[in-house]
Amino acid sequence: MLHIFADPADMQGDLLTVRGPEVNHMKNVLRMKPGDEVSVSDGRQDKDYRYVITEFQEDAAVLNLVGVEEKDTELPVLPYLFQGLPKGEKMELVIQKAVELGVYEIIPVSMRRCVAKLDEKRAEKKAERWQKVAEAAAMQSKRRVIPRIHMPMTMQEAIRYAQTCADVRVLPYENQQDDGSTKALLETLREPTPDGKKKGVAVFIGPEGGFEEEEVKEAREAGIRPISLGKRILRTETAGLMFLSWLTYLLEIS
Ligand code: SAH
Questions:
Q1: Ligand 1 pocket residue status of 230, Cβ below 6 Å
Q2: Measured in Å, how far apart are the chain's first and last C-alpha atoms?
Q3: Nearest-angstrom CA–CA distance, 183 and 179
Q4: Is the CB of 4 under 6 A from ligand 1?
Q5: Are 62 and 205 in contact, with CB atoms under 8 Å apart?
Q6: pTM (whole model) above 0.90
Q7: Dihedral sign from CA coordinates of 121, 124, 125, 130
Q8: Is residue 233 within 6 Å of ligand 1 at its C-beta?
């Protein structure tokens, strides 16, 4: 079933008016007809609204509410992916896959060994494009929320931001030996918080060239723990996805 995101302001009583590119998608790509069902999120984590299409207008679709279900497709933690800016179009791949795997926010980080350099103007355009990639992936994977993609940050800014949003902060480091601490740390995520709120988990991934020792030291001093992701060296676009897929296994699969 088609899953879309709607602004609560467009949900009036039982009526929802959809405008923008989704209308063309529904009408001309999926060839939907009045009477067809659509699942709708309003950004709240645990609600799935069911609507049926009542009519298509020039540039809008009018839908009628038929039911609300309690359905949470979000992870029980909030993962923040701090991704060292990769080369070329790889960031789009990382965003698409990370959204499928349940990421909550993605923060592109300009690290010392990043080849990609973005000036302010290009960064803004990229961030806009990246947000669209996140939205499409969120629709596709039937997420309840659209993950936020930030403007690129420096490593210092990223470290500071992680301190504000995440209870558990890790940095998968290619030179880190597995000593059992990765598993022990992940296990702590299973413990509920006293106030019942979801825990934030920050994960820092280096770019193609990896981390400089100095960066690992700075991160460690700010309470970010270097961890191993196993015996093989993963590409920058694989590493974050590996970590996120662990979270599903650890916290979601019964
Ligand atoms: N050029 C480096 C590898 C960089 S891999 C080298 O040849 O050693 C890119 C990033 O992925 C790393 O900075 C790290 O964050 C992550 N990564 C890849 N494999 C890893 C592993 N086995 N353990 C921990 N982190 C890893």
A1: yes
A2: 25
A3: 9
A4: no
A5: no
A6: yes
A7: positive
A8: yes
| Residue ranges with strand state E in the chain | 2-5, 11-12, 15-19, 37-41, 47-56, 60-70, 77-84, 105-110, 148-149, 153-154, 168-172, 199-205, 225-227
Q: Is the CB of 83 under 6 A from ligand 1?
A: no
* φ, ψ for residue 136, nearest 5 deg: -65, -40
Ligand 1 centroid–CA 206 distance in Å is: 7
| Contact indicator for 49, 68 with CB cutoff of 8 Å | yes
Helix-, strand-, coil-residue percentages of the chain, each rounded to 5: 35, 30, 35
C-alpha 104 – ligand 1 centre gap (Å): 22
- Residue 27 has which token pair? 């009408």
pLDDT digits (tens, 9 = 90+) for 56-106: 998 999 999 999 988 889 999 999 999 999 999 999 999 999 999 999 999
Q: Alpha-carbon distance 252 to 102, whole Å? A: 11
Tokens coding 33:
């007809």
| 211, 206, 186, 182: CA torsion to nearest 10 | -40
**Which tokens go with 97?**
């896959």
Q: How confident is the model at residue 121 (pLDDT cuts 50, 70, 90)?
A: very high
For 29, residues 6+ apart whose C-beta sits below 8 A from its C-beta are: none
